[in-house]
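Working notes for the structural subgroup meeting. M.R. asked for a predicted model of this chain before we commit to crystallization trials. I am recording the input and output together here so anyone reviewing the notebook later can reproduce the run.

Input as submitted:
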Amino acid sequence: MTINPWITNNFLDSCAFDPKYAPEDKASGELLELCKKEEDLLLEVAHSTQKEIDHPNTPSWVKAEAQKLIYTIQVTLTPNELALLGKIQTILAGNGKVENIIQDARHVFEAQRYGSYFITTDARILERAKLLRETCGVLIMKPSGFLALLKRHRE
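Returned structure, recorded in token form:
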């Protein structure tokens, strides 16, 4: 059973704005257009993702689209939240270095903290989606999968 994405917060990863391959590129564009038309579709950006979007190499149209969305602000985490963030970091790092995935872990943490879905095209995050869902409850999906879920729940 999935949570209806029309009644929860849904977080976009920076790579989900401008995927470089089909069908995710088209699905991402449809999601952004749907968000403009449907006031009850809550697409949001985590503060950690906003920092990536502010990078000088980010296309200006992505920056403009992201500015239209609600985003979280950084707040102090409780000990339990810090422990959960640590678990997310461990899952994402796998056999690699934790320092290489700190921002991605924060994106996933923010999505689970304030919402139910995290939309991304990041292969490392997608590969670990099942374990992350079991650990923190967030459902991680590609833009095309999320768009299909939206359509199913709208019907």
